[in-house]
Amino acid sequence: MKTQEEIKAYKADWIKKRREKLKDAWFLANGPCRICGSWEDLELDHLDPMSKFTHRIWSYSEPVRIAELAKCQALCHECHKAKTIEAIKQPVRQVSDYNKRERSYRAQRRQRRAHV
Which helix (H) or strand (E) is 4 found in, with range? Predict the structure, then answer.
């Protein structure tokens, strides 16, 4: 009989492999890098950072993951870093308190529906 530690390690390994499979399949379908065309060190980049729901995309249910990935593109590490640095230089887009509450409410509803 397996110990609790062995079972825990097996589950963690299974989840890690599942997430890697999901990531590999998405990058294969959506690569290469949209800027330079490289297939090396691909990362997920949100087209509009303000629309970002979560950075833990691979651990959510399929409907939530698909909705979030629709807002993303594949970029290599170097292009992603350059894009992020450029975005930091830009003035931050102001979001009204109403929009913040509305986005939060919609996000909570999506989460609840995804876990049902």
Answer: helix 4-30
pTM, two decimals, is 0.65
Structural domain count of the chain: 1
Q: Is the peptide bond before 91 cis (omega within 30 degrees of 0)?
A: no
Domain region containing 39: 4-114
Residues facing 45 on adjacent strands = 73
Q: What is the pLDDT of residues 1-45, one digit of tens each?
A: 789 999 999 999 998 999 899 999 999 999 999 999 999 999 999
Is residue 76 within 8 A of residue 36, CB to CB? The reply is: yes
Q: Assess contact for 70 and 113: CB atoms under 8 A.
A: no
Residues facing residue 16 across a β-bridge: none
